[in-house]
Amino acid sequence: MNQAFNKKNIAIEPMDVKDIDDMHKKFLLNTKSPVFAETLRYCEKVANSNSNVLLIGESGTGKEVAAKYIHLCSQRASNDVVAVNCSAFTETLLESELFGYEQGAFTGALKAKKGKFELAHEGTLFLDEIGDTSLLTQVKLLRVIETKKFERIGSNTPMLIDFRLICATNKDLEENILNATFREDFFYRISTIAIRIPPLRERKEDLMDMINFFLEQSCIENRREITYIEPEVNEFLYNYDYPGNVRELKNTIDRLVILSEDGVIKKDNLPILHSIARMKPSSTSNTFQSIISLKEFRKNTESKYLQWVLNQVNGNVAEAARRLDISSRQLFNKINEYGLQK
Ligand SMILES: Nc1ncnc2c1ncn2[C@@H]1O[C@H](COP(=O)(O)OP(=O)(O)OP(=O)(O)O)[C@@H](O)[C@H]1O
């Protein structure tokens, strides 16, 4: 190694899981879904290789969770998993975040800083949202991945590093290659093993356990006790499609627990957007019949939704307006405009 590493001096990223037991306590990995079970077995299988892994899946499916799981199942588990969200930085900032810099390397570099490559030494580097990196950053990353060497910004001394790379994306990188925003050579380099993390709607077998898991977690975190959940809430939680996946489920439950009163989770606390989604449960996978103007589409959707809300409150306009957070006068105008039934 060209420059000595001293693990003790490396500022460790705060990690929310210490070991595999802790991982099982904090995340629901005991799955009843054959699809997700296969995903987890695949993660375990590849954990002990040193291959670069690309996790592909919609936002909120648990790609970061899967990355930590792979790390903790690997021989690198006693070292760190260092995560970087590539979309959170501009090109220059991402570079200094990854490579680190020497004192005086640029204006504002008052003292030297270690980058994530160094921090991930002997551990795992997790690059989230890799599809958001620029072509130039991809070239620089490719070089480090191939040579396992890098220099801090402002230094000519190469450092040798040993890390396992896991990247994640919710983008279609193959399409990005076609439109020249993602390098093909970089794609092949980072995706020796590609693992698809299934969306929640494809693993509904886990929904009940997940709901209970997050309820319990949220009650502890928010110091609440839930004694009753209105049936409409349960109906919603079990039938909703969760386009935001596990994150949306978790946030929804948090919200319901926080807004609960006297231990009761009420249907009134379901966000209004959820009510729209309930009306059109497969809104994300809908096949539309024909192309119409956006104005006409909005009008159709709005009128159906308002009719549904009016039905829910037995035609009580004042109550419907209150729940819709608009004035009764505005609602009356809409009722007349769309010819709605009270
Ligand atoms: N199996 C699981 N058990 C418990 N919580 C989970 C599980 N999977 C995901 N979560 C929770 O769901 C949220 C989203 O997970 P994560 O950040 O891993 O998703 P992601 O696919 O990386 O999202 P993004 O694409 O937006 O970065 C987190 O709060 C995470 O703790």
What does this structure look like?
This protein is of the alpha/beta class and 342 residues long. The chain has helices at residues 20-26, 34-47, 63-73, 91-99, 116-119, 135-147, 173-178, 184-190, 207-222, 231-239, 245-259, 272-279, 294-312, 317-324, 328-338; strands spanning 53-56, 81-85, 100-101, 113-114, 124-128, 149-150, 159-160, 164-169, 193-196, 228-229, 264-265. It contains 15 helices and eleven strands. β6 and β7 form a beta hairpin. α2 (34-47) packs across α3, α9 packs across α11 (245-259) and α14 packs across α15. The longest helix is centred in the C-terminal third of the chain and has 19 residues, at 294-312. Residues 1-15 and 279-286 have low confidence and may be disordered. The protein binds adenosine-5'-triphosphate (ATP).
